[in-house]
């Protein structure tokens, strides 16, 4: 006998009482009828216990537990054994250079052919000497420009700088410079 069972929340299932199968597969896997098959069995006024797998019947249960299983005493009542306590093996320094990185477990995820260094993409390097692209000062083919001489400001006797320069948006100070060091 095959039935089509519609559920409000699940959808619909096909139950075959002769084969003991339901499309939800709960009956097939466990051997105990699922809710869909129980609905079909109750609809036909049949005995539900006849559709349960024979491994769940009372006689199989009694045969499984017929031999007596005796309990054992707790660890406090176990026989004490005298032996030398186990110790860790002695530490031996291995020859060669020690490993820099830790050994990864086999189940750890590892990327293939990756580096930890980020690459510069879409960045044009410019030389600070000549201003051209694709090289720096060390590899510049032109002779290095001389740096402008550094000037040391002369501070007045009172150790204060001179007044600010005139102008509405000025943030500069007038400082006397000397080329003598």
From TrEMBL:
Location of the SWIM-type domain: 13-45
Entry keyword Metal-binding: yes
Record key words, sorted: Metal-binding, Zinc, Zinc-finger
Protein name: Zinc finger protein
InterPro entries per record: Znf_PMZ, Znf_SWIM
Protein's UniProt keywords contain RNA-binding: no
Domain of life: Eukaryota
UniProt-listed SMART domains: ZnF_PMZ
Molecular function terms from GO: zinc ion binding
């Amino acid at each position: 006998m095959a039935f089509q069972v519609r559920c409000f929340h699940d959808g619909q299932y096909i139950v075959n009482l002769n084969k003991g199968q339901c499309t939800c597969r709960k009956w097939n896997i466990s051997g105990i009828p699922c809710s869909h098959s129980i609905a079909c069995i109750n609809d036909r006024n049949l005995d539900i216990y006849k559709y349960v797998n024979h491994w769940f019947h009372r006689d199989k249960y009694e045969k499984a537990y017929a031999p007596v299983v005796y309990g054992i005493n707790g660890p406090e009542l176990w026989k004490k054994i005298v032996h030398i306590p186990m110790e860790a093996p002695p530490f031996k320094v291995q020859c060669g250079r020690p490993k820099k990185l830790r050994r990864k477990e086999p189940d750890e995820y590892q990327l293939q052919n990756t580096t930890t260094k980020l690459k510069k993409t879409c960045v044009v390097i410019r030389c600070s000497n000549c201003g051209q692209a694709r090289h720096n000062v060390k590899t510049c083919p032109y002779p290095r420009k001389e740096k402008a001489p550094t000037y040391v400001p002369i501070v007045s006797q009172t150790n204060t700088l001179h007044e600010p320069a005139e102008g509405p948006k000025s943030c500069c100070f007038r400082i006397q410079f000397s080329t003598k060091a």
